[in-house]
Structure formats: structure tokens, C-alpha cells
């Protein structure tokens, strides 16, 4: 079975929309540290994912780029 890696894109999307981390945290109803840690996390709380995707007005799957691990092809 192939294995995949999810690379976060939230900060890229946020910057494209001209929203800073503090604004996004307020829009999503989460803390600034939650937004700051987004790119370094390996696991995500579903409530945070839904809140951030709604605040950015993008489908949840757009918050990540999914890649198949090279050694798993």
C-alpha cells in the first residue's frame, strides 16, 4: 500500500489572501500559536482544520499538498 506525505499550504494560502496570522487566528476562532504551529505539525485537530478552511474559504484538502513517498511507488 502506498504511503503519502501531507505538506501544509495554509501559510501560502493565507499570504495569497493578504491575511496575517493574527487575523486568521481571530477569523478561525483559534489561538495565534495554533496558526504558528500549523506548518510544523504532523497531526491536526479536525476542529482546527474545519475552522481554518472555513476562515480561508477553501476546501479542507486545499490546506495540504499530498505527495506519494518516493520509496513507496
Q: Low-confidence spans: pLDDT under 50, at least 5 residues?
A: none
Main sheet specs: 2 strands, antiparallel
Global shape:
elongated
Distance between the termini: 9 Å
Question: What CATH architecture label applies?
Answer: Orthogonal Bundle
For CATH, the homologous superfamily is named as lambda repressor-like DNA-binding domains
**Mean pLDDT rating:** 92
% residues in beta strands? 5-15%
Could you say which structural class the secondary elements and strand pairing correspond to? alpha+beta
- Which strand order does the major sheet show? 1-2
User: Helicity, in percent?
Assistant: 40-55%
- Rg (CA only): 13 Å
What's the CATH C level?
Mainly Alpha
Count every beta strand, where a strand is a DSSP E run of 2 or more residues: 2
Into how many domains do the coordinates divide?
A: 1
- Figure out the total of helices: 4
Can you tell me the CATH topology? 434 Repressor (Amino-terminal Domain)
What is the chain-wise order of helices and strands? Answer: EHHHHE
Amino acid at each position: 500500500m502506498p504511503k503519502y506525505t501531507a505538506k501544509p499550504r495554509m501559510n501560502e494560502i493565507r499570504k495569497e489572501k493578504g491575511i496575517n496570522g493574527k487575523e486568521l487566528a481571530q477569523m478561525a476562532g483559534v489561538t495565534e500559536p495554533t496558526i504558528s504551529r500549523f506548518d510544523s505539525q504532523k497531526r491536526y485537530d479536525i476542529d482546527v482544520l474545519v475552522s481554518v478552511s472555513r476562515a480561508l474559504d477553501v476546501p479542507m484538502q486545499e490546506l495540504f499538498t499530498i505527495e506519494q513517498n518516493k520509496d513507496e511507488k
